[in-house]
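anyone seen this seq b4? input:
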Amino acid sequence: MTLSEKISYIRGLADGLELDNDKKEVKVLNAIIELLDDMSIAVETMEDLYDELAEHVDAIDEDLTTLEDDFYDDCDCCDCEDCDDDCDFCDCFDEDEAYYEVTCGKCNEQICVCEDVLLEGEIECPNCGELLEFDFSCLCDDECDCDCCSGDDDLMS
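predicted toks r here
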């Protein structure tokens, strides 16, 4: 039963009592019934507006999802999802620049970084916020006998 139907039922009960409309108590009762009727109309209007708003929000959400899919061009090489295997580091990367995969020591997430970022020496992991530091104090090859090499090819310190 809707609010309007309930108010109509109460109005019918009051009319069925055949009360004297000149009495103060009956005037108060009729005023309350009128107020309830007005409130039920207002609530039903708000419910209709809410339903319309919810439809608009759903449409905006779908549009936003489409835009995100188009803009981020999902790719494994840049921490995205559902990438095509023939991707060249996505459209979000400059194809003329070299990129390197780096694994975060804290969350084991692989991220791609450009050479400029590596040369800056550090970057914050976009997944967990861990500070990843890069040490290039020795750039010798694997056959180096210098004291600075530990035999580990990993760029992260």
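DSSP finds three helices and four strands in the chain. The radius of gyration is 34 Å. kinda curious what u guys think
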